[in-house]
Amino acid sequence: QSVLTQPPSVSGAPGQRVTISCTGSSSNIGAGHDVHWYQHLPGTAPKLLIHGNSNRPSGVPDRFSGSKSDTSASLAITGLQAEDEANYYCQSYDSSLSHWVFGGGTKLTVL
Amino acid sequence: QVQLQESGPGLVKPSETLSLTCTVSGDSVSSVSYYWSWIRQPPGEELEWIGHIYVSGTTNYNPSLKSRVTISLDTSENQFFLNLTSVTAADTAVYYCAVKPFIGSYYDGWFDPWGQGTLVTVSS
After folding, report:
1. Cross-chain Cβ contact B108/A34 below 8 Å
2. What is the three-class DSSP state of B118?
3. Among B104, B109, B113, whose Cβ lies nearest the Cβ of A45?
């Protein structure tokens, strides 16, 4: 059971908007710890998409956006493209466990 | 821009020690700007933070692995290392090295960049 819960999969057609949720608890997201998001294609290095809940590193398209509220966070992808098909992970810090934690990952399929 | 590359044996026998190297380019492991980190992902499971080291030698480990993990660094070779003792099949995973920037809140850090990972299988 992941400390941060994500849906196993989401899908959308090219051009559409999808959101990926990340649900935590009072010891991580609800404690005020930031949430970060990564995009990962198997066999490659995971890529930072969003840091500090909603900040995009340079080079990340503005089609990707993040938000956080209470004990959960969301990653939104607008204008879906075939190249967005990948696994997406959220990450935060858990004060009870005393270490950084990741969500179980969400596989995005572009139909 | 920091770049990372993991290396090490792809097969380790049960009860032995898993040893991996992360070679850093584009910056120095002596930099005060980063925590040098290890993260793993067992097949079909979630990512798990293993631990990190700072240039001062200060380390921080996942409590669930702390008794078996050692992370060290070699400034002359610009590398940092992971040693995991007494491995079992449960330690089979893709192991990543990554960088946690030394900025803002220590607890709210992220990992960027990552190496592409190396698969380590524990089997006799």
Report:
1. yes
2. strand
3. B113
DSSP H or E segment with residue B95: strand B93-101
- CA distances, B77 to each of A103, B24, B83, B95 (Å): 34, 9, 17, 20
Q: Please state, in angstroms and rounded to a whole number, the distance separating the CA atoms of residues B37 and B81.
A: 9
Distance CA B98, CA A57 (A): 16
Q: Looking at the complex, does the CB of residue A58 fall below 8 Å from at least one CB of chain B?
A: no
Q: With beta carbons less than 8 A apart as the criterion, state whether B18 and B12 touch.
A: yes
Q: Is B55 exposed, middle or buried (0-12, 13-18, 19+ CB in 10 A)?
A: middle
The neighbouring-strand residues paired with A86 are: A108
CB contact under 8 A, B47 and A48: no
Residues 6+ apart with CB under 8 A from B42: B48, B90, B92, B93
Chain A, chain B: beta-carbon pairs less than 8 Å apart: 62
pLDDT in tens, chain B (124 residues): 999 999 999 999 999 999 999 999 999 999 999 999 999 999 999 999 999 999 999 999 999 999 999 999 999 999 999 999 999 999 999 999 999 999 878 898 999 999 999 999 999 9
